[in-house]
TrEMBL record:
The protein's name in its UniProt record: Urease accessory protein UreF
Keywords from the UniProt entry: Chaperone, Cytoplasm, Nickel insertion
Organism taxonomic ancestry: Bacteria, Pseudomonadati, Pseudomonadota, Betaproteobacteria, Burkholderiales
General function of this protein: Required for maturation of urease via the functional incorporation of the urease nickel metallocenter.
Summary of subunit composition and partner proteins: UreD, UreF and UreG form a complex that acts as a GTP-hydrolysis-dependent molecular chaperone, activating the urease apoprotein by helping to assemble the nickel containing metallocenter of UreC. The UreE protein probably delivers the nickel.
Keyword presence, Membrane: no
Length: 236
């Protein structure tokens, strides 16, 4: 009898995904709070428990059904080099951002990641045309990330796990700075998020086109309010 073992991610792909998920990647993700700073200002998030609940809900209600679903669908398009499909997904991201702050975030992070890809793959004649094309499309962050993950050779699921963990780390650091919380509290929140990430990834992978959504009224209101906060730690 033979048993089928799960496919192992190649070490080079694993390390490249860790690189993409790192908060140290110079694309500016650490400088945004995605509405959390406004939620803290409005006293909707005041302690560790509320911060954990907020971020878990944001993972499932906005990330999983929005950007993560786009990354999952773009993965297949990159494999077949379906530029029309990728352009349509990119347009969806850009036009469904509910505030100027959220739109500027995805534009800036996408542009910075394309610049990073251009530098990372200097001299790679096979990849540079696609990177240049992304630049002409004003690629949003999910689309730029989907291509960066595609370049690693990782599966769509592994790419989403890396993306979600990178998002979680940035948001936990936001909570630590803005609530404020201690590092131990931050690690407990991150532990809760990591328990929820696999479910969120599976949901994103299963969503069809009509299942994607970018409807989160309270997050949009808080993001709009953040643009006008008198004093803030995070970028708008």
């Amino acid at each position: 009898m033979t048993s089928s073992a799960p496919l192992q991610l190649a070490p080079s792909s694993f390390l490249q995904l860790m690189w993409l998920a790192s908060p140290a990647l110079p694309i500016g993700g650490f400088s945004y709070s995605e509405g959390l700073e406004s939620a803290i200002q409005a006293e909707r998030v005041t302690n560790e428990s509320e911060a954990a609940h907020w971020l878990v809900q944001q993972l499932h209600l906005t990330q999983s059904r929005g950007d993560m679903a786009v990354i999952a669908q773009a993965a297949a398009a990159w494999h077949s080099d379906d530029r029309e499909r990728i352009a349509a997904l990119n347009q969806w991201v850009r036009t469904t951002r509910e505030t100027s702050e959220l739109r500027l975030q995805t534009e800036q992070m996408g542009r910075s990641l394309v610049d990073w890809l251009r530098n990372r793959h200097t001299g790679d004649a096979a990849l540079q045309p696609a990177i240049a094309w992304l630049g002409t499309q004003d690629a949003s962050y999910p689309i730029a990330f989907s291509f960066a993950a595609h370049c690693t050779g990782a599966t769509g699921r592994d790419a989403l796990l890396a993306y979600a963990f990178g998002w979680a780390e940035n948001m936990v650091q936001t909570a630590i700075k803005a609530v404020p919380l201690g590092q131990s509290a931050g690690q407990r929140i991150l532990a809760q998020l990591t328990q929820n990430i696999p479910q969120a990834v599976d949901h994103a992978l299963a969503l069809p086109d009509h299942g994607r959504q970018a409807f989160s009224p309270m997050l949009a209101i808080l993001s709009a309010q953040h643009e006008h906060l008198y004093s803030r730690l995070f970028r708008s």
